[in-house]
Amino acid sequence: MQIQFLGTSSGTPTKSRNVSAIALIENQSRQWYLIDCGEGTQHQVLRSSLSLNSLAAIFITHLHGDHCYGLPGLLASASLSNRKDPLLIFGPAGLDDWLKLTISATDLHLEYEIIVLPLSTLTDYEIGQIQISTATLSHRISSYAYIFTNNLDEVKLDIGKLSHHKIPQGPLWGRIRSGADIELEGKTYKSVDFVHTEKTSRKIIICGDNDSPDLLTTQSAGCDVLVHEATFASDMAEQARKVGHCCADTIAGFARDAGIPNLVLTHFSARYHTQATGKGSIEALRHEAQQNYSGTLFLANDFDQFQLTKDGRLEQINDQSH
What we know:
This protein is an alpha/beta fold. It has 2 domains: 2-155 and 197-316, 4-Layer Sandwich (Metallo-beta-lactamase, Chain A); 159-193, no CATH class. Helices cover 22% and strands 29% of the residues. The protein has helices at residues 41-46, 65-68, 71-80, 95-105, 159-164, 171-177, 237-243, 248-258, 282-290; strands spanning 2-7, 21-25, 32-35, 55-59, 87-91, 114-118, 125-127, 130-136, 144-157, 182-184, 187-189, 195-207, 225-229, 262-266, 296-299, 305-308, 314-316. The strands form 3 sheets. It has an 8-stranded mixed sheet with strand order 6-5-4-3-2-1-16-17. A hairpin with a 7-residue loop joins strand 8 and strand 9 (144-157). Helix 8 (248-258) packs parallel to helix 9 (282-290). The longest helix has 11 residues, at 95-105. The mean pLDDT is 93.
């Protein structure tokens, strides 16, 4: 699975950061999923390689504007881009009513069906090879995390047995791995005798706004990547509590205690700037997180793209200076 950040600011956009939107992309297909859709998300999609015609589903974490105000515009643009396939939209109570009212009041005509489903339907829901569930978070309004689990069947060669039978490495191994039987020196070797399937899974948790990371304790078992807000630094902890947000040191400490190997922070207050120094710098948030977490840590920028490898490593795969 790949993660691409389309918006990493909280509340309001800045010159370098749009408000919340994250794309989750399947490796095996062009299909992708959108988690949150703040104002201007459709412009961010245009600046990426993503296509609205390949969008499989949208997941809204909560109904604050910086997470959903871009939804009507994106739906309209998808229709004008000749989308025909139905689109699934998951979100909290009230999302369906808001969309229906907006569509009616603005006389919006979509050339495809939208299917708005309540979060109660997301009990191990499956789309393609990804299983999806939710966790309830703590914020000023109902807010949720989405848990994406990619279950994989990986074909492995029995190297020892291949070597024992003196089957040379190269094209013959490739044919056996693909399921084909081979002939070698007048003898037939069956693929099934040299391959086995290992079942593995990769889990990514992408959170809405949340002031209580401990609510994710149960879901964090086996989690490979946690994407969580870090709206403020610790000197703003009192303000964070008042508005239902998290500080960088708090979420980093949770990820450490939960044994999560990869942590990506996002949703930064506009008071923190990439080029600034001191307390007003994004680097101040990074420093606080690093003091409390020794795993792989990223502070996301808009358009940063990451790959979760089969062995559970999170790697940045685009130019970090984008």
